[in-house]
């Protein structure tokens, strides 16, 4: 059976765009449902540790789905290749704000710093590191060191934890102290108590309450991986991306090989935008996507109406125009097929509101 992602890839551009925004509406409706809201409140009451995840924009890396965690519990930071630097001013401010907000509520923060790879085929690894798993792991380790410098080397208030994500099986690999590793695939058929003991042995310096709140993610991942055993999966080897996303608020986008997401975290946005456009152009020229256009989507989340939303609108418009200018300059032929959409996301409800839609963009 074809996957939703492959079905989207084969449709005309306008139908693909409509389907994508319909997906965002479905995501917001589910997020705001009474069951989902109550589920989040109950989960946070039982497991108060704040959970931040730094990950690649790859749609296969869907941590809430792979750990069976309610949507809205994990705060994601997504970027092309999973490449971050906590010295980047905006990223550092966002992380610090999240940590301080949690601390004022009496909650510690567990920061999952992820890299991904494919056990079955190196070519299915992270394109941001040319499918070099060791390079991706080294970068995750470097982020963890930065986090320790920023929030304290004792790691009692903020615990940076490097985790691998094996995309063929959706399994998490926890990297603990002194080279200790907990690979979920090694615990198929084991009890939660055995998994808990393994986690304590892997991360003995992790505060007990954080281990307690990490365990549901690992037991959920264990159940998820076990359920996938023997299931034939389409591993989506071929790159067929047709969307460039710039900004934040793309939680609804977890379709494999559909979108290239560029977070507004680094000092040089032009380089990753140009890289993303090159990938889209290569997909177009190779016939992996239809030649009738691609989507440039800029988005910024906001919490409150009034000034907060107005600022988000200005930021989204800036990101949209900045990205469009880069694409027109570096890929003028591709730019003639660009569909440029600008949006803001009401973060408490995950509602995405379009601000402006243009048809085919001119290359002038």
What is this structure's SSE topology?
Layout: H1 4-9, H2 13-32, H3 34-46, E1 50-56, H4 63-67, E2 74-79, H5 89-104, E3 109-117, H6 133-151, E4 158-166, E5 171-175, E6 181-183, H7 192-202, H8 208-228, E7 243-247, E8 259-262, H9 270-285, E9 294-302, H10 307-330, H11 332-335, E10 338-346, E11 351-360
Parallel strand pairs: 1-2, 1-3, 3-4, 7-8, 7-9, 9-10
Antiparallel strand pairs: 4-5, 5-6, 10-11
Helix pairs in contact: 7-8, 9-10
Give a written overview of the molecule.
With 364 residues, the chain is an alpha/beta fold. Helices cover 43% and strands 21% of the residues. The chain is built from 11 helices and 11 strands. It has helices at 4-9, 13-32, 34-46, 63-67, 89-104, 133-151, 192-202, 208-228, 270-285, 307-330, 332-335; strands at residues 50-56, 74-79, 109-117, 158-166, 171-175, 181-183, 243-247, 259-262, 294-302, 338-346, 351-360. A 6-stranded mixed sheet has the order 2-1-3-4-5-6, with helices on both faces. A hairpin with a 5-residue loop joins strand 5 and strand 6 (181-183). Helix 7 (192-202) crosses helix 8. It is globular, with a radius of gyration of 20 Å. The protein starts with a helix and ends with a strand. Residues 358-364 have low confidence and may be disordered.
């Amino acid at each position: 059976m074809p996957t939703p992602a492959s079905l989207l890839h084969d449709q005309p551009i306008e139908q693909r765009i409509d389907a994508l925004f319909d997906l965002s509406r479905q995501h917001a409706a589910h997020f705001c449902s009474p069951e989902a809201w109550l589920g989040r409140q109950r989960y946070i009451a039982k497991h108060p540790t704040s959970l931040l995840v730094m990950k690649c924009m790859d749609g296969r890396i869907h941590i809430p789905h792979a750990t069976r965690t309610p949507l809205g519990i994990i705060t994601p930071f997504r970027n092309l290749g999973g490449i971050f630097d906590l010295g980047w001013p905006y990223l550092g401010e966002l992380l610090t704000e999240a940590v301080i907000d949690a601390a004022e509520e009496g909650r510690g923060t567990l920061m999952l710093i992820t890299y991904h790879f494919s056990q079955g085929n190196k070519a299915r690894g992270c394109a941001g590191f040319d499918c070099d798993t060791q390079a991706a792991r080294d970068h995750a380790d470097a982020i963890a060191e930065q986090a320790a410098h920023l929030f304290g080397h004792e790691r009692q208030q903020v615990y940076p934890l490097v985790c691998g994500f094996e995309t063929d099986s959706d399994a998490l690999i926890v990297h603990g102290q002194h080279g200790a590793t907990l690979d979920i695939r090694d615990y198929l058929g084991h009890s939660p108590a055995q998994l808990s003991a393994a986690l304590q042995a892997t991360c003995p310096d992790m505060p007990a309450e954080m281990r307690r709140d990490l365990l549901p993610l690992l037991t959920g991942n264990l159940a998820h991986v076990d359920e996938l055993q023997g299931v034939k999966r389409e591993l989506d080897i071929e790159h067929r991306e047709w969307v460039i996303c710039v900004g934040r608020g793309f939680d609804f986008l977890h379709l494999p090989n559909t979108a290239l997401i560029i977070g507004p975290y680094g000092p040089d946005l032009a380089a990753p935008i140009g890289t993303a456009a090159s990938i889209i152009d290569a997909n177009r020229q190779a016939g992996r996507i239809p030649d009738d256009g691609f989507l440039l989507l800029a988005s910024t989340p906001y919490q409150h109406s009034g000034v907060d939303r107005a600022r988000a609108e200005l930021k989204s418009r800036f990101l949209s125009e900045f990205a469009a200018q880069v694409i027109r300059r570096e890929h003028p032929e591709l730019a003639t097929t660009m569909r440029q959409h600008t949006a803001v996301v009401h973060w408490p409800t995950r509602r995405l509101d379009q601000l402006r839609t243009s048809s085919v963009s001119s290359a002038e």
